[in-house]
Amino acid sequence: MGALHTSVPRWPAEIPAVDPAGRAVALLAFGAAGKRLLTAWRAAVPERTPVWSHVVDRADDDSLGLLARQVAEARVGWRLMLAGPEVDVLAARSVAIGLGVLDAEIRMVVTGAARKRVFCPHCRGTTETAAPVAAEVPCAGCGRRLHVYGHVSRRLGAYLGFMADAEEVA
Amino acid sequence: MTAVLSAPPAAATEEGGLLLTVAGVEEAAPGIRTVTLRRPGGGLLPAYPPGSHLVLSCGDRRNAYSLTGDGMAAPEYRISVLLCPDGDGGSAFVHALQVGDAVVAAGPRSAFAPVSTARHHLLVAGGIGVTPMLSHARAAARWGRSFELFYGHRPGAGAHRAELADVCGPRLRAFEQAAGLLDALGAALADQPMGTHVYVCGPAPLMAFVEETAAGLGWPGDRVHAERFSAADLDPGEPFVARLARSGGRVPVPAGVSLLAALEAAGVAVPSMCRQGVCGECRLTVTAGRPLHRDLYLSPPEHASGDAVMCCVSRSLDDELELDL
Fold it and tell me: Do B137 and B168 touch, CB atoms closer than 8 A?
């Protein structure tokens, strides 16, 4: 896939500021590097703006459930800031946009992109891996050999995989 | 809601053109006429996204009128038109229609559709601006979407009040005083669940109130949708030259003459409709030079990128603007 047309996110080097237009801010950080960013953001939130703030190890059912409950309680005017490894930030953004949050309401910083989740369109399972784009990984759901493709779904927060040998004669 | 357009009348054979018969006329409120249109031979009319409008040929003009149905394919289209005695004649044309008259229409065209990913729809209508909201409310009720409609109108002049009460039930909040409407809207905009989108159609002060209040409460522009009547009165602008990249022509555009009118006078055919920077029909690709955007159609990022221009109202910041023509 040509570099010009990939949907693999290119994360800006710049750290975004807290949106001064927000009436309430939620901060969610993953891991130690994310926590440092969160601490700086927290200090920058205007004094009277309510802040919801959590540092967690990773985006799992517990932490994503926590975020989903916060979005469900939020009123329009709310902003979300995410910091941490790409795999966790993408998963958290996926939950937020699935609940109707817009890109204009989310600011993100990625502290590393070593790990990724790969979606298998054959069994619809998701496999976490440290493999790079264009490598192959076995699907955790169905065992097929998946080629990790240079396409990232915003909705799923995952890379697309597809069966590496689909066109070979069995 | 109406937009008054000043293009030549549509030919009945135009692509998407519809020959329709007036099947009913009734007064929806004082000064507001509801017209029902059908195919002469009967049969379903094209479906449309809620908030769409029908472009009706009204004598020598073409006017866009909001369709008030839920958008499902049906044998009738309904429009409701406020008589504007000082207008350009479109509303007088509609008010003179009688059952059995033939009319030519194009469309429907969608420029004010509900956002499919919204968790809740906050609809705001002022006066005759209720017409696209009736369409939105009907569709939202039909498909079980979460919504609420704030409707402000003059005492006794609330078009479609009874139908809306039927469609919306307790989700309709009607006001006969502007102050009451604005207070209630201010409170509503301050307390909407995440994922809400707001839609407004009505007089300019109401639209400005919603946009400014929402922005002040931290609503991103992407959540605020306004169905505009027309662009504000525009100044004549500075003269410039349109350079035609493909044909190699040069068309001078004097002050007070639109780029669209100058191109037409030079024999360059450009599709157009509203001529007010609203409909999106006359979009041209810019290959060099910086456009001076004055339309309401392109988004702020599209304005910033500068690679397209709505030639009916927009002009050029530079002495020359190169177009892909």
Answer: yes
Interchain CB distance below 8 Å, B223 and A76: yes
For B258-306, what is each residue's pLDDT tens digit? 999 999 999 999 998 878 888 888 999 999 999 999 988 898 889 999 9
Rounded to whole angstroms, the Cα distance separating A17 from B185 reads: 31
Condensed to tens digits (0 to 9), the pLDDT of residues B90-131 reads: 889 999 999 999 999 987 988 899 999 999 999 999 999 999
Chain B residues in contact with chain A using a Cβ-Cβ cutoff of 8 Å: 117-119, 189-196, 215, 217-223
Instruction: List the one residue out of B175, B162, B227 whose CA is nearest residue B2.
Output: B227
Chain A residue set in contact with B, beta carbons under 8 Å: 21-23, 71-72, 74-79, 99-105
Total Cβ atoms within 10 A of residue A96: 27
Three-class SS of residue B292?
strand
- B183–chain A nearest CA distance, Å: 18
ipTM attached to this prediction: 0.90
- A105 to chain B: which residues are within 8 Å by CB? 220
The mean pLDDT value of chain A amounts to: 94
CATH superfamily of B2-109: Translation factors (2.40.30.10)
- Identify any residues that bridge with B240 across adjacent strands, giving them in sequence order: B253
A58 beta partners = none
pTM of the full structure: 0.83
Q: What is the CATH number of domain A3-112?
A: 3.40.50
Residue type, A149: Y
Domain layout of chain A by residue ranges? 3-112, 116-163
Q: Is B56 helix (H, G, I), strand (E, B) or coil?
A: strand
Count of CB atoms situated within 10 Å of the CB of B254: 12
